[in-house]
Design brief:
alpha+beta, Jelly Rolls, elongated, binds zinc ion
């Protein structure tokens, strides 16, 4: 199962929680686990606050400090900062399913993290 995500800028956190819940309902799974996997080397996935949009902006800012876009990298493609951020944030999440939806805290959402957009991306889902 795949969710397609279209990013609109170089760095963008996109809340995909409702899309994940749609897929779970369509799959008819009431209880279980959902693995989310990002098959890209310059994108990632994370779970964090979805209530205040400034939180994702602050995370983006902190990651920019850790891995500035230009920093004397060797990788010829010129997007090493995006590769580094992808590794720091991670390519997968495992979440519980209850009542045919993802179990999340009140303030949590699942974010697809674009670090080298704009691009069309994929999120793979496996439920069991
Ligand atoms: Zn590259």
């Amino acid at each position: 199962m795949i969710i397609t995500v279209k990013s609109l800028s170089r760095t963008q956190f996109i809340d995909i929680t409702s899309h994940v819940n749609d897929k779970i309902r369509k799959a008819g799974i009431e209880t279980g686990l959902c693995m989310l996997f990002i098959p890209h080397t310059t994108a990632a996935i994370t779970i964090n606050e979805s209530a205040d949009p400034n939180v994702k902006k602050d995370i983006e800012m902190a990651l920019d400090k850790l891995a500035p876009w230009d920093d004397g990298y060797r990788h010829m493609e010129g997007n090493s900062a995006a590769h580094i951020k992808s590794t720091l944030v991670g390519a997968s999440e495992l979440v519980a399913i209850e009542n045919s939806q993802i179990v999340l805290g009140t303030w949590q959402g699942i974010f697809f993290c674009e670090f080298d957009g704009p691009r069309t991306r994929k999120v793979h889902l496996k439920m069991f």
